[in-house]
Predict the 3D structure of the following.
Amino acid sequence: MDLSKEFIETVEKIVVKILEIKKYDITENTLQEIKNKWNDERLKKTEAILNSYKPLNDFIKNINFTDKEFKEMERQQIKTIMKNNFTDNESFLERIYKSKINTEIFVSFLTTVFNEYIDEKTDSRVISDIRKAQLLKEMYMEGTKPSEVKVGYSSPKTFYKDRDELIDELAPKILGMYGIKFNEKEL
C-alpha cells in the first residue's frame, strides 16, 4: 500500500512538472506569435500611410476653395435640398469639407515627420541614411514610381533593404507606441 501511494505521488510530481514545462512552452509560443503579429502590423500600417501620403496631399490641393466660396456653395446646395426634400442629414459639401480638413491635419503631421526625418538623415552624412531620405522624398512624397527610383541604386537588394529600414524607422514616428518594434529580449 505504501508503494502504490509513493508511486502515485511520484507520478503526480512528474505530471505537474511536465504541465509546468508545457505551460511555459505554450506561453513562450503565444508571446512570440503576438510579437510577430505586432511587428508585421506596424510595418504594414506604416507602409500604407507612406503609400497614401502623395494622394492625400493631392486631395488637399484639389479641394481648394475659400470659406466664402464654401458658404456660397453650401447655401446653393441647401436651397436645392430644401426644394427637393427636407433632411437633417449633413450636406455633401460639408462632408467633403470635413474630409479635406481632417486629411489636411493628417498630411501636415506626416509632412512635419517626413521633413524632420529627411533633415536628420541628410545631416548624418551616412550614405545609407542619405539614400533613405532621398527614397522617402522621391518615392513617397513626390510619388515617383519605385521602378524609376530603383534605377539610382546599385542593386535591387539595396533598394529593398533601404525601403524596409525606412519603414521600420518611421513606424514609431508615425504610429507612436503602436509603431514600437518588439525585440526577442523584451517581454
Remarks:
- The chain has two domains: 1-37, 52-187.
- The helical segments are 2-62, 67-84, 92-124, 127-141, 146-150, 156-175.
- The chain is about 80% helix and 0% strand.
- The mean pLDDT is 80.
